[in-house]
Amino acid sequence: MNHATGAKSVRSVPLRSRLLTIALAGILPLALVAGLGMLSIVSEQTELAKQRSLEATRLAATAVEVELSRSLNVLQALSQSPLLDDGDIDGFADMVRRVLPSVPSWYALLIVSPEGEVLRRVSLHNPPASRTIAEPRSFAEVIRTGIPQVGSMSKGPGGVWGVPLRVPVHQGDTVHYVLTAVLRPQGVADVIANRRLPAGWVNTVLDSNGLRIARSLNHEETLGMPASPTLAAILQENSGEEGIGLSMTMEGNSVYTSFVRLQPSGWVVATGVPTEVVEAGATRVYTLYGGGLLLSLVFAVTAALFATRRINVPMRHLRRAAQAIGHGQAFKAPESEIEEIREVGRALESAAQARLSSEAERDNMLSRLELAQQDLTQQVSDLELVQDLSNRLLQMPALGDQLQAIIDAHARCTAPRMGCWRSATVRPPCAFMPRGAFQLLRWRSWMKRSPAWVPVV
């Protein structure tokens, strides 16, 4: 605030700052729109990657379900054998031994009585003999419902992991036997390995108890282990048949995990996609956006600085020209491709010309004023002289003295405007005399007594 005038002072801002502000104001809306578009693209790419993961999980779950259905169908076909109806267990065992090579995913086939006693164990690997079953829960469910069951993975007598697939053998309305095929976890691992997932993706198959049946990465090392805490939390929070969440792998890698629950077995097939794979597209978009924005800023700043230089140089010339006008010095208007600056230069030239004309007119008027002042001063002096002469004439009784006083006064009045010479002689003056001077010379007899001033041209 200017306290002297009461007006608010205006803050001085460099031209460079104004141009940079204009450049940034032009970039800001574009950057905002591009940023919103980028966020939309990133969100769509993330959702697309998640959907790809879910599709891969569905395909893997379908393959595992097909493998289970194929094994159950084989078991159901075997359960219809007349040998079992006749109670010929040895003959049935011989037939199964010939069938087992065509089902490489089976480790063994058990013929179990309704009481849970293993009547015969058929295998190509000669497992230890045992009369008890390893996983009784699914066996009890078969006896109760009379329908095929997929059990939970457990270890058999030889300490080998296996998954029991149980099918009842009916005689009338009662269950006479229970055929149990021990599915090797490696068979399930081979199924998911055939999916040929992209690098870094991980497939996992869990049984109804959450134990790991198969894994596409480090299968043997993780066999029989529970799901990772983060995966278990995702499964607990999502009770639906499908879902997606963020989890950590056994190796400590962050992955987007999609899962599918198989019914009625209760198995879970999960696929983990590394977060860097999902976010790779977003990273590329961010990089392109950031690079483009930075490049735009560099171009805008460079253009603003270039324009500032192209404006400031002629503006300095204009400032010097204005200073030259103030000092009355000659100057040359700056040359510029900017029309406004050229117009200011032409206006300064016009102002300089107007100043010169005004100063010349002022000097002329001052000269005339000085001459008028001198003439006025002379006239005032003459009037004072005449006034003084008038006062003295009243005091002079002699006519000669009066004439002498008049001649002296006249000489003093006209001396500045006429040539005068002093003479003590009675020689007549030059013939070039002003009007009335000849009559004054007739009195030259009085001039003999004292010198006189005689006005001449």
UniProtKB/TrEMBL annotation:
Residues 309-360 form the HAMP domain. This is HAMP domain-containing protein. Keywords: Membrane, Transmembrane, Transmembrane helix. It comes from the Bacteria. Gene3D superfamilies: 6.10.340.10. The keyword Transmembrane helix applies. InterPro entries: HAMP_dom. The chain crosses the membrane at residues 20-42, 286-307. GO terms for cellular component: membrane. One of its GO terms (biological process) is signal transduction.
